C-alpha cells in the first residue's frame, strides 16, 4: 500500500517516507508518538529523581549524623522496623500458603 503524505513544513508530497525528502521534517505519526512518549518518560524519571533527592527518608537523612547517639538511635530504629516488616511478610506468606 502506497502512502502519500504532504509535508506540513514545505508542502511537498512524499511516498512511503517517515521524513520529508526535501526538508527532513518528521512525517510519521507513529514515530512522532514514540518520540513524544520517550520524552515524557524521560521527564517523568527526572521528576522522580528530583523528588527523591528533595525528600529523603528519616533513615537516609540521619544515618550519617554528626552525633553518635543519633546515629545509634536511627540504626536501632531501622533494625527494629526491618525485623517488624520481615515478621509481617512471613505472616502474610504463611496465611497465603495455608489458604492456597
Number of domains: 2
C-alpha geometry? elongated
| Overall average pLDDT | 89
The number of helices is 3
Order of helices and strands: EEHHH
Secondary structural class = mainly alpha
Low-confidence stretches: none
Terminal Cα span: 54 Å
Can you list the strand order of the major beta sheet?
1-2
Radius of gyration: 28 Å
Helix proportion: 55-70%
Percent strand equals: 5-15%
Largest sheet: 2 strands, antiparallel
Number of DSSP E strands? 2
How does this structure look, described?
The chain is mainly alpha-helical and 100 residues long. The protein has helices spanning 29-54, 58-62, 68-99, and strands spanning 4-6, 13-15. The chain crosses the membrane at residues 80-99. Keywords: Membrane, Transmembrane, Transmembrane helix. This is Zinc ribbon domain-containing protein.
Concise account of the structure shown:
The chain has 100 residues and is mainly α.
Topology:
Layout: E1 4-6, E2 13-15, H1 29-54, H2 58-62, H3 68-99
Antiparallel strand pairs: 1-2
Organism: Winogradskyella damuponensis
Transmembrane segments: 80-99
Keywords: Membrane, Transmembrane, Transmembrane helix
Features of this protein?
100 residues; mainly alpha; two-stranded antiparallel sheet; 3 helices; 63% helix; 6% strand
